[in-house]
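User: Here's a chain of 402 residues. Predict its fold as tokens.
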Amino acid sequence: MHQVSVIKVEERVSHLMLGWQPAVDLRTVRDDFTCRAPGWSFLQEEQNGLRFAYKALLHRTWSSAYLGQPFAKAGRWLVQTCSAYFESESELRSEIFAAIHLTAGLPARGPEITSIKVCNTAQVMRNLIFREGRLLLVIEYNKARASNYHAFYIVRYLPQRLAELVYLYLVYIRPFISILASQLRFSYLHANEFLFPDPRHKQKHLSPAQATDILKRLTMRFPAPISLSLYRQSALAIAKRYIRELIQRADFYKPKAASDPTKMIAAGVGHHPRVLLTEYAIDSALPVQLQPELLEMYLQLSTLWQDWNRQYYEDHRNLWTTAAVTPATGAAIKSESRGLKRGLPADSLPVSSLNKRQAPLIAAPRASLDMDGFRYDAQYKILICISCESAFKQRKLHGTDT
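Assistant: Prediction complete.
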């Protein structure tokens, strides 16, 4: 799921960039944590020179086609082609949402992730910020104000490839869409401060219900499509079981080694290490509550999450293939069970005894395996659920096992 979400964004960005692949080096992008001017983002930073970068894509469209149709004819935009481009950009926003929510780190709450801002407003600061060649998702969590009158920051680092794709979207595709919509007088398509505006144009940004629909479309082949709340619970369960085993027990505020530089410097000036890290030598380019030590901790957490998912994918992709599942119920289960006991191949079972309704897809192993809750019979290529005795048949589809 994590791998597919990024691949979808990559394919869609290439599609909307009309095959053009400009060089991207995020290490050269300048951003300012401390700038709170309304409307400001990294695109307005003079050193970046990106304010009118979208014009390169605009000029390409005059001589390019989209879905086999030209963008313009006789100096005028063709509405049908432009509308198809608008629809594809809307799909890209949904795919970017899914990719960020799944891969940036442990998942945020629905209202937090759906209301991500790409530029400052008069009330709040933007959430997407570039720093040291990485794209950060910074959320100021205000729930703590009720108890201590101070908010704290939650930071998630996007995977590098996804960060580059989001950069291309923000620098080229999104501004081009806004200009094109203005020229065609599609007022409801004008970009606002939110990264994920409401596709139905009824509110300013994506709602948690719409976000859940995006995740369900991505996981529609699962036995149970995943909602925002279900994914958050699942991710935390995975983190507690697996990620914590990878996290080194390091406390930035309480160095344990006697030779630790922070501890030695703090002792030299008569302070506790925590005081040194939080009250002295503060980096003025960052909010006081979000200093480099805290950013480093969040970077480690995001990296562990991404590395674990990547490694899990590498370890299991050779064992699993996408398989069509036809859940058998009632008499059909008994028929398949009898067929297995008699040594009959599942192909001999009558079609009428199976549920003909198209079912979700799951991953099925290629070799004979015993898994938690499932048993795979390699001889007959059948996956059996131990709890309910449902049997799923592996078939040939277009020359491949499914």
